[in-house]
């Protein structure tokens, strides 16, 4: 459900309603099947969340989750997937309590993504025979397990965690876009270079056009010859250097190191404490603070990413934990470059999984076992996430809706989502 708002759509916020969203989506050129399923998804959300939910979303500054689905193929797919999940858990025990955060007055992006991830975990294994319970009370009288999955006597008790952009990251990239009109960090990582240093927050202290041109030239040059370059401006200085082959767990991105690697470990430690309290044995993390796209380890193949993630997980877990394992994912992100379907097993037993997902998306997942039972159950998680590309068609078929191919047959919409 995550998305962005275009300037043309922003004026709709004051009068936002399900009716208006229906009208806006109907005005976008698309196949009859896509219009049918999009209309169905909005009806499901209206029935589940209430007629006033768009208005409340505007008041809580999260209307982007709806408006972006009008013009972005990827964000519309996310909205449709969320509606499918809502219908698939219709008879799921604990459903009402799991959806309560979306119906509360304190509606936030974090609450939306947490619930979305909870429903993802609850439904992704359904084609493979897994059934789910939500907010299952176990050893704690008031704190339930986010998701309990069961199949043929196997039980996976799962605590979920969605790590989104922090305020520091948002502020830094807002500055980046304001000055350069682009995400400089994304360009740098795509060219396998690192940009460090600082420029003044006030772009009037230096020639922005000249600075932008020099940085672009330096990034391309360092990418080509591997020789670092230092650029000096009146507003500060910037070092452009090649990314080393030996990637460690420290990295910097433009403008005061916006991405904080400590957030992952601190968030995971909080979830470890919750898991200990309610009896969960697995933690499922969506690592969506832009590290997966912009960090120093972003260009690595899935094996390299799995090594980095495994180290982070084990450092956060420490000794004396009660977990069987941690499953960390990039989320279903827009494909940039090649994302071949592959699974790789590390020497330490962790598994890295990469799967393309239509439309225009991919997910990379790392499963880190932490106990004997974790190693035994690792193939269960591997099967669930390796099977994900077929899930959308399965879910649509369960509800008597057109196929994914029919829905995405005409790609005339903007595919770029928000983070």
Short description:
By secondary structure, the chain is an alpha+beta fold. 46% of the residues lie in helices and 18% in strands. It folds into 3 domains: 7-95 and 399-407, no CATH class; 126-166 and 260-386, no CATH class; 167-257, no CATH class.
- The ordered H/E elements are HHHHHHHHEEEHHEHEEHHEHHEEEEEHHH
Could you tell me the strand content as a percent range? 15-25%
What is the count of helical runs?
Answer: 18
State the separation between the terminal residues, measured CA to CA.
Answer: 10 Å
Mean pLDDT: 82
In total, the number of strands is 12
Radius of gyration, CA atoms, in whole angstroms: 22 Å
Count of the domains: 3
Relative helix content: 40-55%
Uncertain spans: 1-13, 245-258, 411-416
Main beta sheet strand tally, sense and closure: 9 strands, mixed
Shape: globular
- Derived structural class: alpha+beta
Oligomer: single chain
Can you offer a commentary on this structure?
The structure is a single chain. This protein is an alpha+beta fold and 419 residues long. It folds into 3 domains: 7-95 and 399-407, no CATH class; 126-166 and 260-386, no CATH class; 167-257, no CATH class. Helices cover 46% and strands 18% of the residues. The strands form 2 sheets. Strands 1, 2, 3, 7, 8, 9, 10, 11 and 12 form a 9-stranded mixed beta sheet that branches. A 3-stranded antiparallel beta sheet has the order 4-6-5. A hairpin with a 3-residue loop joins strand 11 and strand 12 (361-369). Helix 2 (18-26) packs antiparallel against helix 3 (32-49), helix 5 packs across helix 6 (73-88) and helix 6 (73-88) packs across helix 8 (109-124). The chain is globular and about 60 Å long.
């Amino acid at each position: 459900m995550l998305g962005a708002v275009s300037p043309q759509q922003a004026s709709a916020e004051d009068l936002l309603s399900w009716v208006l969203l229906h009208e806006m989506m109907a005005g976008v050129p698309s196949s009859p099947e896509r219009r049918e399923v999009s209309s169905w998804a909005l009806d499901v959300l209206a029935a589940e969340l209430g007629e006033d939910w768009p208005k409340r979303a505007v008041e809580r500054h999260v209307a982007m989750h709806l408006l972006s689905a009008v013009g972005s193929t990827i964000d519309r797919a996310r909205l449709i997937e969320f509606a499918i999940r809502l219908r698939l858990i219709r008879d799921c025990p604990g459903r009402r309590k799991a959806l309560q955060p979306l119906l509360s007055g304190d509606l936030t992006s974090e609450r939306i993504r947490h619930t979305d991830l909870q429903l993802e975990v609850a439904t992704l294994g359904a084609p493979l025979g897994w059934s789910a319970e939500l907010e299952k009370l176990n050893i704690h009288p008031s704190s339930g397990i986010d998701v309990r999955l069961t199949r043929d006597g196997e039980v996976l008790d799962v605590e979920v965690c969605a790590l989104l952009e922090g305020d520091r990251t948002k502020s830094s990239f807002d500055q980046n876009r304001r000055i350069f009109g682009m995400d400089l960090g994304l360009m740098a990582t795509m060219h396998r270079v690192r940009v460090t240093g600082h420029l003044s927050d006030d772009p009037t202290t230096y020639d922005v056009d000249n600075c932008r041109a020099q940085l672009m030239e330096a990034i391309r040059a360092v990418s080509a010859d591997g020789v670092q370059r230092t650029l000096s401006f009146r507003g500060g200085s910037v070092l452009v250097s090649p990314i080393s082959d030996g990637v460690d767990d420290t990295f910097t991105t433009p403008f005061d190191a916006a991405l904080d690697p400590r957030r992952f470990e601190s968030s995971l430690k909080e979830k470890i404490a919750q898991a200990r309290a309610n009896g969960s044995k697995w933690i499922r993390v969506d690592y969506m603070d832009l590290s997966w796209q912009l960090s120093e380890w972003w260009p690595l193949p899935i094996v390299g990413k799995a090594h980095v993630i495994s180290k982070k997980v084990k450092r956060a877990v420490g000794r004396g934990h009660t977990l069987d394992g941690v499953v960390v994912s990039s989320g279903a992100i827009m494909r940039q470059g090649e994302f071949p379907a592959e699974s790789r097993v590390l020497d330490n037993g962790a598994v890295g999984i990469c799967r393309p997902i239509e439309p225009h998306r991919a997910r990379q997942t790392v499963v880190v076992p932490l106990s004997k039972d974790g190693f035994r159950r690792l193939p269960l998680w591997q099967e669930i996430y390796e099977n994900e590309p077929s899930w959308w068609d399965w879910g649509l078929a369960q509800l008597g809706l057109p196929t994914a191919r029919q829905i995405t047959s005409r790609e005339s919409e903007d595919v770029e989502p928000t983070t």
